[in-house]
Design goal:
Elements: H1 2-40, E1 45-51, H2 52-59, E2 64-74, E3 78-89, E4 98-118, E5 121-142, E6 150-173, E7 185-198, E8 209-210, E9 214-215, E10 220-230, E11 232-233
Antiparallel strand pairs: 1-2, 1-10, 1-11, 2-3, 3-4, 4-5, 5-6, 6-7, 7-10, 8-9
């Protein structure tokens, strides 16, 4: 009987020690797993932006343009982009002895892959699909001292055009600070290569400029944008 009691007590002590070690091991594993989960948690970043380059052209009376952008960054690298813009383009050489105006709105949507190449400095590559809805009007005046002077005008509406873009974006923080409003304020540039997909081709006078795309003299058009952005991390 004494041997049996010693066996029971010994077994209980061994079980207690093993159970304690297993519990400690489980707690360590849980803590480790918890730490891993915290490390792999992906932040969500929302980035509203304004194209100040277009505002500058409006201020000096070249054309009337403005453009806004909203981006959402997920998984630290995938950047979802949406653009809205408005343009009133008046190219000087569109009509000799006359004037031409193209007015409308445009939208873009696309994806980028983003890299942080230095502290708070980003580089991204991606593509966008764009569509513009616009109208245009023009007037031709041909004065003559011998024959009657000629004056003709036209106004057309409900035009649509589509194109694709390859985009490279660079972005850098204004002030390298850990806290405060300037810690989230960025400036950057976008370099675009636009590929025209579809545009209207009226019979009497061809479309000279498309808001958001530019002049239609070529089906591949380079462009650049300067913007200021504010990064909000959630």
């Amino acid at each position: 009987m004494k041997l049996f009691i010693k066996y029971i007590v010994s077994s209980f002590l061994v079980f207690t020690v093993v159970a304690g070690q297993a519990q400690d091991s489980l707690q360590v594993e849980l803590k480790t797993d918890s730490t891993i989960l915290q490390k792999t948690k992906q932040p969500l970043t929302i980035i509203p932006a304004l194209d100040y380059g277009k505002l500058a052209t409006t201020a000096i009376h070249w054309d009337t343009k403005y453009e806004f952008n909203l981006s959402v960054v997920v998984f630290n690298h995938i950047r979802i982009n949406a653009d809205y813009g408005h343009g009133e383009l008046e190219p000087k050489n569109a009509i000799e002895n006359g004037k031409y105006i193209s007015t409308g709105d445009y939208y873009r949507a696309g994806l980028d892959y983003q890299f942080e190449i230095a502290t708070k400095t980003f580089l991204s590559f991606g593509g966008m699909y764009a569509s513009s809805t616009f109208k245009d009007e023009g007037q031709v005046d041909i004065p003559s001292e011998i024959w009657p002077s000629l004056s003709e005008s036209f106004a057309r509406q409900n035009f649509n055009a589509q194109w694709a873009e390859f985009v490279i974006t660079t972005e850098k923080v204004v002030a390298n600070r850990e806290q405060g409003p300037l810690a989230h304020l960025y400036v950057g540039a976008k370099f675009r290569l636009r590929f025209l997909i579809n545009r209207p081709r009226p019979e009497n006078f061809d479309v000279y400029a498309i808001p958001g795309y530019g002049r239609t003299f070529n089906n591949v058009v380079p462009a650049a944008n300067l913007f200021v952005a504010y990064r909000i991390e959630l």
